[in-house]
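Students often ask what a holo structure prediction actually looks like on paper. The answer is less mysterious than it sounds. You provide the chain, you provide the ligand, and the output is a string of discrete structure tokens encoding the 3D arrangement of the protein together with zinc ion.
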Amino acid sequence: MVREAGARLSDDATRDIDWLAPEAPALAWMVRLAAPFTYATSKNHTYALRRSGHVALRRESAHARAAISQRIREAFRGRRVAHNKVWIDLLVQKPDHRGDAINVVDLVCDAIKDAIGVDDRWFCIRRLDWEIAKSDPMLYIGIGQEAEYDAQVCSHCGVIKPLGAFTRRAKAKLGVGRACRDCLRAGRKHARYATETSR
Ligand SMILES: [Zn+2]
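The corresponding structure tokens follow.
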């Protein structure tokens, strides 16, 4: 029954292909920053320049990721980030048309995860664009949230709910159980019904 309720909610989430609506979600806050672009920020960097050796290239990528992460930490000093959806705007400036913006997304998201401590399962790309900038190409990164309360996705119904909608569980990472109170109640009712009818 609980599973059915979850499936029903997922049915409600079925979209028409015109989902790509022109309006971007309105955000409660957004932090903007810029970091220098290098091809080391691209996922296919380790494959692109074989001459230098993979280990050196991986080190370059790790260094670029750490540098971006550091910028984000500085920009976020004193700001609380909720355990909730994180929206990302990314403009990739590149010196030529060799690499693609898509391959930069991975490393930037990893750097954001390192800096703000919210798992990337919560990340959404709000905007992604690129342009050519021959001198001093930069990555322009915007990071924001719609909701400022801590939330969790219920393991049964799949709805994003504030932590208060879950029962407390001291040992769990977020201090709450995985299924929401409504689902637990529905499950208990269902269990009672099952025992009553099987008598
Ligand atoms: Zn639920």
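The chain has a mean pLDDT of 87.
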